[in-house]
Amino acid sequence: MRFKRFCSLSIAAAIGMSILAGTAAAKETTAGLTFDFNQNDGGFTPIFSDYPNEHGVDEFYELRSGHEEVPIADAGKGLFLSGNNHSDDLFMGYFKELSGLAPETEYQFTVRFKLATNVENDMIGIGGAPGESVFVKCGVASEEPENSLDSLNHFRLNIDKGS
Fold first, then answer.
1. What is the pLDDT of residue 130?
2. Domain annotation covers residue 19
3. pLDDT tens-digit profile of 124-139?
4. Residue 24 CA, distance from chain mean position
5. What residues contact 148, with CB distance under 8 A and at least 6 apart?
């Protein structure tokens, strides 16, 4: 069985990201991964979850992702995510397999990235203010994030993304 770790990052648009992994073994080692999104998408895959499985829902929720120009002067390219949060619970994220990690080994991850958004502070909205009720999360899981349908016919992730 091949051992895999996946990094899931929920962001609006990242200009650059670095992941540093160190083991907790007796001999401390550090390895680094750097992704330059000006070149390509770094192998990251978009995923959307926590919304209903209905005809036309992708258009209604305006789910979009891609490797695009960041709308800030001289910022270059980045990963783009966008959606209209009609469910007040929409999850938008990216994930990537991190290979070369050993099973039964403890790792510590540090993630650094730049974020760009077009949402201002102090706005109001049903279910929460758009500028204050959107959160950035990063996690590492031993399995690939995948959607499945729950009893309410909503897409749900197979991994814990926190509350």
1. 66
2. yes
3. 766 666 667 778 888 8
4. 25
5. 155, 156, 158
